[in-house]
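Researcher: Structure prediction, please.
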Amino acid sequence: MIKKSLLFIVLPGSLMLLIVFGGTVASIISAIFLIMLAIYAYSERDALFGLSNKSGSYSVHSSSNTNSAESPVYSDEGFTIVQTITKDSPALPHQDEDKTTSAEKYPDTSENPVVPIPISHNGSHYTTSSEQAVKKVSIHSKTYETDTDEINRKFREIVNSTIPNFGSKREEINHVFELFLEVIREAQSAHTAIYFGYIKSSEKIFVKLSSGNKEQLIDSHLEIEDDFLSNVVKSEKANFIAELLPAAESDNIKYYIESQKIRSVAAVPVQYSNSLIGVLLIDSKENDAFGEESIYTLGKYVRLIILYLGLFESKFNNANAEQKLELVDKLYENLLRIETPEDIHTLVYDNLAQLISCDQCVLVQTDPNTNKSIAAVVFNNTNKSYLREGTILEEGLSIVYQSISGKSPRIINDLSDSKFIRFKENENIELTGSFMTIPLVYKDFCYGAVCYESKRTGAFTSQESMFLFNALGALAFYLFSQNMQTTLKRFITRDVETNVFTKAYFLERLQGELQKTKILKLPGSFILLELDALIYDPNLFETNPVKKASNALAKILINEVEPMSLLGKINDKTYAIYRFNLPQEEAFVWAERLRGKVSGEPISLYSKKTTITISGVVLPVNEKSTVENLIEKAQLTLTKTVSERSNRIIKTT
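Model: Predicted structure follows.
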């Protein structure tokens, strides 16, 4: 303050002396004034050279240099530090080379001494010089009080969380993917994180998994167009938009039901086995939320996802292979036990439908003689209507017909892509998803097909189709054997087990006997006998003894029936007899006597002696009688007779 006052005194005084004494004295006084001005400038050098300490702010500026680098600006409570560091500034000695501490090197008596800190910028390493770095700056520190117990509780909850016990491996991997997306969304402060699946064959994009605004995401397939997501798919390159104008949102963001006011978006392709399988995308309602660094970060997440996919595929394939081998082994084992049509149903439900994850499974059988294909067994694991059993397939453009005629598997990854005909036209099947058919080929002939359908798109792969094509070769051989037996039975006149006429041959011979009766105008009688239900201890016998009891009954009938009569086996429990030139009354007496003989003669069933009983009906044969009428009327009457009381013979007209 004294120096400033002096300045104001000297300056007016020197002007007065200049006027009074003239130039010489004025020169002397001017020199004195310059000296006083220099003294003032020295005292106020901080303000003159840009170093100020006013209004709670502090700035440091050094001389300009072509190799200078400016450090970041740190602020707190109104204090700002801007440091310009030069490469030519002397570096601080390394701690390993010089054990002298910073406090010893740069002594400071203040309470909060400043220690020089290395600064990294654009890949170069800089350190502050001693003169630039040592500045007394008071920056207020903040104290945050946190609930340690609450933090630890949340930490333990996250770390100790377990994966739920899902029914399938696909659900497990989807759960882990959702955890990935949740981490990505929170780490990037995104509005939504989405994983889009990509079907290469149909060029469709669909939302597979997401974290965030799930309710507003579209649930249908997206077409490849000119929007942001489509461009990532077409180019298979990462891309981002830092500032999306409101007018351009509808043209670029098409995966929401309605506008979400998205202003930033970033996406990267997900490739597995050198093929695009999806896109990982994040979006935000803030401008400049994403940039190049977001692409790099998403790339790291994609790498983790791909590594996880590889580990999962290895583990899943091994476990799945073992499971499939067990199912194939069980399939072969059950094929050897098939005896009745009901066994085929069990085979489909317990084996074929379990070989691969599916919602519907259909066994189609083809008759080699007529080349007609029929849906023999239908397994439906949903509450939706599906194909009915017994449906005859139409020849034409159906997927199954093409597979059977071409003798090669067919896969449709997306049934919603267009209107596909699975089995026949107007089949009334509205389900969408995936469809696969495996032909059953043996010795260059297709004996049918096994058809699988799933509600998921892209559910089946070519590897699975070839596995099933090879594994189901045993089923093709069984159908070949079954058709061969059916063909041979047409030429067999006698039952192999009982040596009586088979049903087909008996009905054929009966047609001739009815014609003979009509021509000769002689009487005749038709008798239908059925083995009554057996009372047996299931623990005593290994299997149902009906077949053995039926064989024992056949031996008695062969001895009692005359050579001029016909004896045929209708099924395991029923036998038919035609007595030529024998009236109904005499035939009834003969049948009653036969019933008594059967019930009174014990037979050996395994290690125990027991008796059997029969029930029957006797019908007269006349000129108007036909084979169909006789069989139908006799079976209806016999069913009624047995339901009322067994072990009796009745006669009817």
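Model: The CA atoms of residues 268 and 380 lie 40 Å apart.
Researcher: Thanks, that helps.
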